[in-house]
Amino acid sequence: MTRRINAEGLKLIKQWEGLKLSAYKDVAGVWTIGYGSTGSHVTPGLEIGREEADRLLIKDLDRFERAVDKLVKVPLSANQFAALVSFAFNVGEGKGGFATSTLLKKLNAGNYDAVPSELGKWVMAYNPALKKKVRVPGLVNRRAAEAGLWAKGSFVSSNTVEAKPAAPPVVSVENAIKVATPLTGLFQSFTSGPAQIILAVAFVAGAAFLLWRWHRRQQEAAT
Length: 223
Hints:
The chain is mostly helical and about 220 residues long.
């Protein structure tokens, strides 16, 4: 089953593509509408509503989600997957784009750290007026946003390994004592001698039991 982009990635794409309800030519001279939707369905003079723009975006994203899912051979966090879908959506998923990029080659070799710098190389676009590729500030900012999303912590998953929350912190008697020690001082004003010792031990034991119960519930919730 193909993974789907998360809300963070969808928000990023919407932000950087921008919403245009009337057909327009992008920086490369391609007719575009909605959130960067291109193709034979986009013609000069075309007008759409917000719902249609959202529908087109979800439809367009399917192709790029499938491409990232298929081409990447190493585990990705949800945010890493989303960053790559945004990247592929912008530069193309096939030859000359994501599929043949040095970024993909390095990532599949296990070099996760190379991704942000490789993203930063994709900031040029063809300018018909100048008849050459030029550095586009908007692409510089978008690559930076994608690199930021890539670096965000998240649970790791892949095609065969489901994402799971990190294990809850281990509860120990030492932790229970650390929690209980400041509170046991409250009893010193009211008790003394053997009674004070018995009350303190009982309090620590009770605190340890409550923390153990909390730990078990956290484990059950994580499975």
